[in-house]
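To whoever is covering the structure queue this week,

Two jobs came back overnight. Logging them here so there's a record in the thread.

Job A:
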Amino acid sequence: MERIAYRIFYDYEIMTQGFNFHNELSNKEIEENINSLPSELETMFDDEKTTVSISKSAKYKDLLFVNSELDEDEVDKRVINALKGLSLFGEKLESLDEVVIK
């Protein structure tokens, strides 16, 4: 089972590039969207062996962890779809060595 980590963030400037109909989210809305990400992903994976969690870190504000038996490309696709639906972005971390959990 692979553990994949993503740095999760919101960026209004990126969101509006080529799409000017997006209203800027408040800090509360951003936090709510980040907190709802695990439940959103659990329905997308629909698999008892996949686990999803959000953690805070010293280096990155919000981290998403996905443990799954699915191949990494499939996990990435599902994470990207969930992030888009919540107006969020993610950057996959190449190494878990750089992650320090608060």
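Job B:
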Amino acid sequence: MKLGSFEEKRAEIQAKLGFDNFKAKEIIAAVDDEEVSRIIGNLFLEIVELINKIKQQNKVAIELANTNIKIIDRMMQAPRSPIQMIDFTTETDRDKRLSGKSIFEKTV
């Protein structure tokens, strides 16, 4: 996973710069150059904002997935549900009588 390699690279660079095991706020406080400290601080804030956006989007995606699962579950339980009528077997497993069905059904 790319995230792991980014983390390894960050830790390696941080150690080379003498900030091994420092947290972001500690690095910002330890930098002597005020301009560099300000830039790093702004980057840190931007990263925090992006992380919060990702967390929010992940929460929405999970809620949407759960809603979809509930809808599909209700459809599966309904009598004569369209989902229950779909043939999920492979074409080689199908009965000869299904060979004349539509392309859509063959694809599904």
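Note for Job B: The mean pLDDT is 80.

Please reply-all if you pick these up so we don't duplicate work.
Q.
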